[in-house]
Specification:
This protein has 105 residues and is mainly α. Helix content is 70%, strand content 0%. Helix 1 packs across helix 3, helix 2 runs antiparallel to helix 3 and helix 3 packs antiparallel against helix 4.
Length: 105
Amino acid sequence: MQVTDPAVHLFGMSTVIAASAGYSAQTKMVGAWRRSPYAPLLGRLAAAIFWGCGSVAGLTVLGIPTAITVPIALTVLTVVTVVLAAAFAGGLIRPARRPGLSART
């Protein structure tokens, strides 16, 4: 049994299932983090993870081996994570401001 076998069994029958699961995850994350200004970003990231799993599973069903698709998916995930971490650390993405506080420049 490979690591991606559960995803293939869950999402492999239809990519529509992966798309709807991603949309549902996005909606739930935004609802759970609704007070945070980062809620849409977190929801979109959760949806993207579901969509990525569905894409890998769909490609596996088509016969493309996971030895090709999984490293590509992990590379994309790593690059996105590093870019977001560098953006937060470098100050390109400002921390959330509290309502009622004056903005300092």
